[in-house]
Backbone:
């Protein structure tokens, strides 16, 4: 399944701009509950719902697209509106502050052993072997994984030639973790980063895109060289000529063909099929689009084998304050601890 072949990687160019959000926060209904801070990570116990009893572990650790803001919101929606027990881990410095530039520290990775589903949103992490061993065991067990945006280049080991996981680096000869597990590694910015946004075009009939009709995000489309034969593309990305949902598709060859931006795999692991989802759209600012949040919720349902429970329109309303920071290096909010994401929210929404 071939899409693009390029000899070199393009350079990242960043700039500031304003954008129009897709959705706003709904009114809160139902009883209120506090979420406990558990050490250096967050725990959102599930309310009543189809996901009751399922453990979802969300791992935030990228320097650019504000995974530390995106994943707590997704966790709250999954827990309060759908019943999943959610835990969020963060890249942190030694003081316990959330620090996307701390590539070697994600406290709590041992919790992967209890997870039914992992949502991974990391970039160029350089984790110690003892931490990676937990993640590797999860993958080798054939358990489901949902990779977001920079998860295609989740790991890198430029200074640690002795790491047992050096073959997982994004630029390994075989494509590393991205190619082996998700289906692709980092290639390039197919759209112009910071000036051309993305319109999602649903191209398959699948439970993950049930109720998904209006997909837009200010991040650009990533380039894809080739996906494995076992991949099914669910959404393609149209490159737009501006940073507003009403922007027009560019008229050049970059939309002919359009790049995949959401796909799934059922990857053979022994006699089993491991369920893999990858979305290259999903920065914190992208998640102001309600239908993208809905797609992410549906992806977790499908990952854990609950696709028959996906309704016509999965509840995906925002919970608590959500004012995401624009993407960019060094632009993360400083001095923030996991406790900053504790909220009051509905425990029953059905």
Residues:
């Amino acid at each position: 399944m071939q899409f693009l072949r390029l000899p070199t990687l393009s350079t990242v160019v960043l700039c500031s701009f304003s954008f129009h959000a897709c959705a706003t926060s709904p009114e809160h209904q139902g009883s209120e509950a506090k979420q406990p801070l558990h050490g250096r990570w967050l725990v959102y116990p599930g309310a009543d719902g189809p996901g009751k009893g399922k453990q979802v572990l969300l791992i935030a650790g990228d320097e650019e697209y504000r995974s530390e803001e995106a994943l707590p919101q997704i966790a709250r929606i999954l827990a309060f509106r759908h019943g999943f027990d959610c835990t969020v881990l963060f890249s942190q410095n030694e003081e316990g502050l959330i620090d996307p530039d701390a590539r070697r520290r994600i406290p709590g990775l041992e919790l992967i052993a209890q997870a039914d589903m992992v949502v991974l949103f990391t970039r160029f992490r350089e984790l110690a072997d003892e931490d990676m061993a937990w993640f590797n065991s999860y993958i080798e067990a054939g358990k489901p994984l949902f990779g977001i945006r920079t998860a295609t280049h989740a790991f890198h080991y430029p200074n640690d030639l002795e790491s047992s996981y050096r073959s997982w680096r994004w630029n390994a000869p075989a494509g590393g973790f991205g190619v082996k597990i998700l289906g692709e590694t980092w290639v390039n910015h197919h759209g112009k980063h910071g000036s051309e946004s993305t319109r999602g075009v649903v191209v398959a009939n699948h439970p993950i895109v049930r109720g998904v009709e209006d997909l837009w995000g200010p991040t650009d489309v990533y380039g894809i060289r080739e996906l494995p034969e076992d991949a099914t593309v669910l959404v393609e990305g149209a490159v737009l000529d501006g940073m507003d949902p009403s922007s027009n598709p560019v008229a050049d060859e970059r939309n002919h063909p359009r790049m995949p931006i959401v796909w799934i795999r059922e990857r053979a692991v022994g006699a089993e099929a491991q369920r893999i989802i990858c979305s290259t759209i999903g920065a914190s600012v992208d998640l102001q689009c309600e239908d993208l949040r809905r797609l992410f919720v549906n992806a977790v349902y499908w990952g854990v084998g609950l696709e028959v429970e996906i309704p016509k329109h999965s509840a995906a309303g925002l919970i608590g304050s959500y004012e995401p920071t624009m993407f960019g290096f060094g632009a993360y909010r400083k001095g923030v601890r996991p406790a900053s994401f504790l909220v009051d929210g509905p425990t029953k929404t059905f």
About this structure: The CA atoms of residues 159 and 315 lie 44 Å apart.
